[in-house]
Amino acid sequence: MDPDTITIAETSDMDAATDSGVIEVPPNSEETILMYRTRGQFALFAIGATDNQGCEFKLKHGEDTVYQIESPLGQINDPFSFKDKYGDSLLCDKDLEYVVQNNSDSTKEFVCRFHLGVP
After folding, report:
1. 69, 100 Cβ separation under 8 angstroms
2. Which residues does 83 contact at the CB level (< 8 Å), separation at least 6?
3. What is the pLDDT of residues 68-80, one digit of tens each?
């Protein structure tokens, strides 16, 4: 993998992000904490996000939910690697979106990072 072909997409790039680069998810609501709009086929190498109690995470590829779990796939500083876990990156050809459902009774703050590149 050539480091020059890796792209990092972060929550701070999102229009909904606060000045400190986070997305706030109010209680009992769902928000996209990171979206990458496709420019053709690409690979998702790794993903990491903030973990908060009482929240569910969905990784969506187009309209399809790829993962739906109660904690993020990986942390910001310890991202989940598709290559390490499954032997290869996740190939994508549609928009990629990480969505949080906050089921708690307080607003939660999130950051997320996608490690993307050429398949």
Report:
1. no
2. 45, 46, 89
3. 999 999 999 999 9
